[in-house]
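README: folding subset

This subset contains proteins for which both the sequence and a predicted structure token string are available. Records are stored as plain text. Below is the entry for Extracellular solute-binding protein (436 residues), shown exactly as it appears on disk.
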Amino acid sequence: MNGMRRVFAAGLVAALGLTGLSACGGETAQEENPTSITIWHYEEDNGAQGQAWARAMEIFEEQTGVKVNFEKRSFEQIRQNASQILNSDEAPDVMEYNKGNATAGLLASQGLLSNLNDYVDEYGWDQKITGSLAATGRYDELGVMGSGDWYGITNYGEDVMMYYNEDMFREYGIAIPTTFDELEGAMQQFVDAGVTPLSEGVAEYPLQHLWWQLALMKGDDDFLNAYEMYDGDVDWQGEAATFATQTIKDWVDKGYISRNSTGLKAEDCGQNFMNGTYPMFFSGTWWFGRFQSDIADMAWSAAVFPGAEETRVPGSSGNIWVIPENSTKKDLAAQFIDITLSEEVQDLMGNAGGLPIAADPDRITDEKTKALITSFNGVVERDGLGFYPDWPTSTFYDELNSSLQELVNGTTDVDGCLRMLEEYYTTGVETSGYRQ
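--- output ---
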């Protein structure tokens, strides 16, 4: 598959008044004494990242005297147009971008992102970003994450947890589960009382994240490395994939998951949990801050999926800061990235309901957020982040959803679903050129 490598040089723009080289030895000329820097991201102003990064921009201007030109771009704008933008003189100096092989890895392999190795050494970023958190910032020459050079830097994390409506558990006299057997027992008790336990949606990511959590509980590191890093062959009939798929089928048959969930999206699931329709919702920490602000009259809590306390869980670093190769202000861009990892900005993010990677839980004032950060730190310390199931190819997100929809609505069985997933996965990896 060597001919499939997506390696081509970015078009570089030479401009008047530009001299010198970047600190990382890049070919793009660097502007002398710049007076401004352009930053793009797609976080909401009132979100944890948006608040923290706004403060980082203020600190940057205070420290450097350089003006920040901030432009908010939507996730879809950047996702759909990144290659064209970064291969032009319209590129920002630093921007937030999605991590993974089909996104940051692709741009890195195309030569559109700056190699950050020297900046990592200069600022010591690899002392804060370690283990699974580091994987999403490093890519090899094929654009496969987990090794090679640094092209992205994260400053927050995320994982997937079980959210509990404590009021519903008390109403029905059911204990919040702490083991997998207790989870299935609690779900059966809810079904016996006429309540569907899990808020699920198969049209978007929620069910595929549950499927992946179940697979990670049975899969070892060899399974994970084969699936995510193409290091070996994925055994689609092995214990991990079979257990996950069979369990989803069993839970649908038992009424733990509604067959009507096939058309529901993530927003539907979150709203159904918030309005008290379902007692449990398995989804990411990105819901945490919203639940804190939007749920007024319901007692709720969150914890690692029952039975997964010693295994991997879906999750990774958050999205990453990248410096386009065409930037003429790379040193300033790196200085801004370093500020987002500072104690002040990290603590602000944590107190706003985010999941900073370098905050001290003792400096977080909200008890729920402190517990969230402590839980995430524990996952990171045991190297327990298992990434996400759709990352291996650019089309696998939709293919996972469609295969699981067929499983839930009964148009295929466990074997048929596994065969579909294997075919989609194998075809996508082969055509992508990720394997030599």
